[in-house]
């Protein structure tokens, strides 16, 4: 990889500020010179919509003090929700134990009254409930550390879908232990607060004169308040759990618009100097042919991001250069992609290898986009304009396919345009999509061997 290549637009740059320069000052200076940097690094061959997208890119400057993490951006909101639910469950437990501690203090208050009458001060009376609360909290914290470690590793294994194992340690460090200790102390104090409050207000003479019925009557209001708070939080947690379960059930039974079973994707990474001396269309056609000869392979195609990538590339599309464009999902695909994905061509046709020789740029649009742009009229043969005005590129519509949530499962009937991968560079990353009639894992090693044999790409299966 040559870092001087102006087509490398995904790099993250790191720098150290000069003494006396703040982050805001550096951000202002960088944004000032950014247009000049773009002019000086304009990639060769970029024209029309591609050039417009290049100049539309913005530079984002942020502090690297905590590092740059896509995981943090992706899972922060989910982890905060999980933390709130866990905190609610902890609070319910605390209220329950507080109620039990208060009941115990009421039961033994005659004994406490005798001790107070004999000269015991408040701190002596508080010692037992406070120690019991701290012991309970300590035991819960110690026995919870090991399951928490296992659960953290399980959550990472479920959530991580990267190409390599995630090197994220879940072992408790001083920060985790400090947080656990702080929560344990807070929990102990919360449990002990009711009996402590009751002991501080207790008058020994009055306590010795009271009957058990009068004792319970005086403390009933506080106990009812604790019980009401416990029941309220319990209802909130149960309702949240039911809503989460309902959402998961809906996701499991959601029709994504494409067939997710018997689908193998292989990410192709270019080898050194892979783009020299060979026609890219001929190479990908040969790779498709060789993969298609494997037993159990029904069809082969290529795409830029691949299904279930969780990445959406949005670009403006309009049916006229004078109309205001709308943002749609853009995906580059090769011949037979919709057959591989198990999608349905509703009108027109899908891409063929012969489309490499066409003189015009072609595209296929989703049913939702066709209805948005043209209503119920036939859209095959019409044109759309891809990219911002005035650099929008004219594309002829070859067909319409059913709407599919190829990128994010939560996107329902997304507006999408599929552009034909006419110029698939050999030095770019791409995804080989394979439809099988057998378990995809049984042919994975054979498919990877074919990729190695042709000697143009490294492989990695997501």
First-last Cα distance: 22 Å
Oligomer: single chain
Number of structurally distinct domains: 3
Count of discrete alpha- or pi-helical segments spanning 4 or more residues: 12
User: Helix proportion of residues, in percent?
Assistant: 40-55%
Gyration radius from CA atoms, angstroms: 32 Å
**Which structural category fits the helices and strands?**
alpha+beta
Q: Biggest β-sheet: count, sense, barrel?
A: 6 strands, mixed, barrel
Could you tell me the strand content as a percent range?
A: 5-15%
**Overall pLDDT, averaged?**
78
User: What sort of overall outline do the alpha carbons produce when their principal axes are compared?
Assistant: elongated
Helix and strand element order? HHHHHHHHEHEEEHEEHEEEEHE
* Strands ordered across the widest β-sheet: 3-4-9-6-8-7
Q: Count the beta strands.
A: 11
What would you say this structure looks like, in words?
- There is one protein chain.
- The chain has 462 residues and is an alpha+beta fold.
- It folds into three domains: 1-61, no CATH class; 70-141 and 185-252, no CATH class; 263-460, no CATH class.
- The chain is 48% helix and 14% strand.
- The protein contains twelve helices and eleven strands.
- It has helices at residues 23-40, 48-56, 70-107, 109-117, 122-159, 174-200, 204-209, 212-252, 280-292, 337-341, 367-374, 444-454, and strands at 263-270, 297-303, 314-318, 326-333, 345-348, 362-366, 383-386, 393-401, 416-420, 430-436, 457-460.
- Strands 3-4-9-6-8-7 form a six-stranded mixed beta barrel. It has a four-stranded antiparallel beta sheet with strand order 2-10-1-11.
- Strand 3 (314-318) and strand 4 (326-333) form a beta hairpin.
- The radius of gyration is 32 Å and the shape is elongated.
- It starts with 22 loop residues before the first helix and ends with a strand.
- The relative contact order is 0.11.
């Amino acid at each position: 990889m040559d870092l001087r290549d102006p087509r490398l637009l995904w790099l993250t740059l790191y720098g150290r500020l000069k003494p006396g320069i703040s982050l805001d000052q550096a951000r202002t200076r960088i944004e000032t010179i950014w247009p000049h940097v773009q002019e000086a690094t304009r990639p060769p061959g970029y024209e029309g919509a591609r050039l417009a997208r290049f100049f539309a890119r913005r530079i984002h400057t942020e502090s690297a003090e905590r590092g740059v993490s896509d995981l943090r951006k992706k899972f922060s909101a989910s982890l905060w929700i999980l933390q709130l639910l866990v905190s609610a469950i902890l609070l319910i437990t605390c209220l329950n134990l507080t109620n039990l501690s208060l009941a115990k203090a009421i039961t033994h208050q005659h004994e406490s009254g005798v001790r107070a009458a004999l000269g015991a001060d408040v701190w002596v009376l508080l010692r037992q409930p406070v120690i019991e609360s701290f012991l309970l909290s300590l035991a819960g914290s110690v026995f919870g550390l090991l399951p928490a470690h296992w659960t953290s590793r399980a959550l990472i294994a479920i959530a991580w879908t990267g190409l390599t194992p995630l090197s994220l340690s879940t072992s408790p460090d001083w920060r985790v232990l400090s947080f656990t200790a702080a929560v344990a102390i807070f929990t102990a104090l919360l449990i002990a607060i009711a009996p402590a409050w009751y002991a501080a207000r207790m008058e020994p003479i009055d306590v010795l004169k009271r009957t058990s019925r009068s004792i319970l009557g005086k403390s009933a209001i506080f106990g009812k308040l604790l019980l009401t708070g416990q029941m309220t939080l319990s209802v909130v947690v149960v309702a949240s759990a039911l809503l989460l379960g309902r959402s998961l059930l809906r996701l499991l039974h959601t029709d994504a618009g494409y067939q997710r079973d018997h689908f193998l994707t292989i990410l192709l990474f270019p080898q050194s100097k892979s783009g020299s001396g060979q026609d890219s269309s001929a190479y990908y056609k040969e790779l498709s042919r060789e993969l298609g000869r494997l037993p159990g392979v029904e069809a082969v195609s290529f795409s830029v991001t691949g299904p279930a990538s969780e990445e959406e590339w949005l670009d403006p599309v309009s049916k006229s250069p004078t109309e205001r464009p709308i943002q749609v999902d853009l995906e580059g695909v090769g011949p037979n992609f919709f057959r591989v994905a198990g999608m349905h061509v509703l009108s027109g046709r899908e891409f063929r290898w012969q489309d490499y020789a066409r003189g015009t740029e072609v595209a296929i649009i989703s049913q939702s986009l066709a209805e948005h742009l043209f209503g119920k009229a036939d859209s095959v043969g019409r044109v759309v304009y891809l990219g911002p005005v005035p650099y929008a590129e004219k594309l002829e519509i070859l067909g319409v396919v059913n709407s599919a949530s190829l990128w994010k499962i939560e996107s329902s009937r997304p507006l999408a345009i599929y552009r034909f991968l006419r110029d698939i560079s050999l030095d770019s990353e791409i995804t080989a999509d394979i439809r099988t009639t057998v378990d995809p894992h049984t042919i994975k090693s054979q498919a990877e061997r074919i990729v190695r044999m042709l000697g143009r790409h490294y492989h990695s299966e997501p």
